[in-house]
Design goal:
With 408 residues, the protein is α/β, with parallel strands linked by helices. The protein folds into 3 domains: 230 residues, Isopropylmalate Dehydrogenase; 102 residues, no CATH class; 45 residues, no CATH class. The protein is built from 14 helices and 16 strands. The strands form 4 sheets. The protein has a 10-stranded mixed beta sheet, with helices on both faces. Strands 6-9 form a two-stranded antiparallel sheet. A two-stranded antiparallel ribbon has the order 7-8. It binds NADP nicotinamide-adenine-dinucleotide phosphate (NAP) and magnesium ion.
């Protein structure tokens, strides 16, 4: 075999949980280390280590991505009550992705990976649809209260206090008047800076990929909050991008979120759909599933400060992990996790001017697609594929088959 590709700057590596942790190690062993002199700065975000460090490791990893610029992350468990019990946690830690996104502040771009033989559920979708999810604020950084018991009948207000002590109040709801006395309340925020960065990231991505940019919100109902998103997008488009979009022959257009959803379904794909944080969370699962599988989707967090974090869009595939632990065969799709690695290596190569690294990433992605298009695939794709000579393989065999195509 020819010499391994050298790296100059380490990738920030964030290991994770369950089946994806198993896949993580296999990808490195079978598909990367044989070809690349892999340099990483390793952080273990597995739940045991988060417990041991009281989640400090998640913050350290995020800070390392800020220092080195490029991170690659394995899927991780976001603990709920069952997980607290299962892992004997002293706290119900926050979602690692939430913590990382709050620190890096950016936009998550998710693009389906299309292969021959996997036909989208929406017959007219012929090109990928990239979801650009604003990864800051709104309900993901909300403050919530249950209005009940001693709070029953309370009057709920928004109160703004300036550093000089001036106050402004607005009534949210008065639970004390004639109506019901119990309920719920939530406060959310966003910042102009983050929305501006979101708009820039989407417009820069549209230019780079030469695709139209769509954005939808609900400014007819939310006349201040959603309206601010629309106005910032307009200002940034007209101030910085209009001419470049014209020159590239692409368009930006804003429409109400419900109209956007209807148009997306009728479209042929091939554009970027900028989504508010929650819309992006929900719609990326819909788009990924409609294109085939959550495991056939790339995901990258792009921060306006120049940091990139690559990950898979799906979770830790818990059900498969328990099968794996029981010694049973699994057929878990590793494509999204593999593309997180290739995306990160390609970006590292770009920043460090190591074209061999980018070429390796291209070759590995092509080998992965060629494997599926030759009919060798994991169970999730097997049930979808229209190829005549398809064959379902186990998790590890798929990776070995990709490796074989790397050396052929
Ligand atoms: P999940 O891990 O995405 O899996 C849900 C189901 O989708 C699986 O049971 C499997 O279906 C299918 N699936 C997902 N990825 C697959 C793959 N790579 N190959 C084949 N099938 C795949 O979601 P979950 O089970 O709801 O969540 C498990 C854990 O993941 C949770 O603790 C959650 O907190 C965490 N999570 C993490 C992230 C992240 O770190 N980015 C995102 C979401 C969830 P079948 O069982 O039918 O085969
Ligand atoms: Mg989601």
């Amino acid at each position: 075999m020819s010499e391994k590709i050298a790296m100059t700057t380490p990738l920030v590596e964030l290991d994770g949980d369950e089946m994806t942790r198993v896949i993580w190690a296999w990808i490195k062993e079978i598909l990367i280390e044989p070809f690349v002199q892999l340099k990483t700065l390793y952080f273990d975000l597995g739940l045991a280590e988060r417990e041991r460090t009281h989640d400090e490791v998640t913050i350290q990893a995020s800070e390392a991505i800020k220092r080195f610029g490029v991170g690659v992350k394995c899927a991780t468990i976001t603990p709920n009550a069952e997980r607290v019990e299962e892992y004997g946690l002293s706290e119900m830690y926050r979602s690692p992705n939430g913590t990382i996104r709050a620190i890096l502040d950016g936009t998550v771009f998710r693009t389906p990976i299309l292969t021959r033989g996997i036909v989208p559920y929406i017959a007219n979708w012929r090109k990928p649809i990239t979801i650009a999810r604003h990864a800051y604020g709104d309900i993901y950084r909300s403050c919530e209260m249950r209005v009940a018991d001693e709070l029953a009948g309370a009057k709920l207000e928004l109160v703004a206090t300036t550093p000089g002590g001036k106050e402004q109040r607005a009534l949210i709801y008065d639970f004390g008047t004639a109506g019901p006395s119990t309920g719920i309340v939530q406060g959310i925020h966003n910042t102009d800076e983050s929305i501006e960065a979101f708009a820039h990231a989407c417009m820069a991505f549209a230019l780079e990929s030469k695709q139209d940019l769509w954005f939808g919100a609900k400014d007819t109902i939310s006349k201040t909050y959603d309206r601010r998103f629309r106005d910032i997008f307009d200002e940034i488009f007209w101030g910085h991008y209009k001419q470049r979009f014209d020159a590239a022959g692409i368009e930006y257009f804003y429409t109400l979120i419900d109209d956007a959803v209807a148009r997306v379904i009728r479209s042929e794909g091939g554009f970027i759909w900028a989504c508010r944080n929650y819309d992006g969370d929900v719609m990326s699962d819909m788009v990924a599933t409609a294109f085939g599988s959550l495991a056939m989707m790339t995901s990258v967090l792009v921060s306006h400060k120049g940091y990139f974090e690559y990950e898979a869009a799906h979770g830790t595939v818990q059900r498969h992990y328990y099968q794996h632990l029981a010694g049973k065969e699994t057929s878990t799709n590793s494509v999204a996790t593999l593309f997180a690695w290739t995306g990160a290596l390609r970006k590292r190569g770009e920043l460090d001017r190591l074209p061999q690294l980018g070429a390796f990433a291209d070759k590995l992605e092509a080998a992965c697609k060629a494997t599926i298009e030759s009919g060798v695939m994991t169970g999730d794709l097997f049930v979808l594929s229209t190829l005549p000579h398809k064959q379902k393989v186990d998790t590890k065999t798929f990776l070995v088959e990709v490796a074989r195509r790397m050396t052929e």
